[in-house]
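Researcher: Here's a chain I'd like modeled. Treat it as a single chain, no partners, no ligands.
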Amino acid sequence: MIETILFIILGIILIFTSIMVITRINPISSALYLVFAFLSLASLYAMLSATFVAAIQILVYTGGILVLIIFVIMIMNLTNKELLPLRANYLLLFSVSLIILGGSLLPILLMISHSIHLGGVSLPEEFGTIKTIAPLLFEKFVFPFEMLSLLLLTAIVGALIISKRKL
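Model: Modeled as a single isolated chain. Structure tokens:
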């Protein structure tokens, strides 16, 4: 029972912070809300017994990708006058239409979820641990893993070149 309540609270926090990310004018405050969104998503992963995915969510996204995002924001050095045209003029209309759409889809989703019988899914004892993920990552999918590291390295080098050019 407490797990369900905590899961719902974390889901609400994730939805709220995600909405705040896209509605803020200031990119730094948007990035801070993104930190909270990443952390609440990692908490949801941890509650689903995917501890390795939760740790990677914190290390890679919150620690790495968000640092790159903040670095790009600092390089752009936007003022409030440049940010004001980016503000959503129809935010209230968008919010009301989203609430109406969600409210109309909720009964349909509830009817579908009651008609589907989900038997208790039993997970293996070591589900989501590094012991089960490491052989897949470093044996079967080693080439895509290395290509991803090269892609991230290219992004970092590109950000450094762009920042040196502006100085």
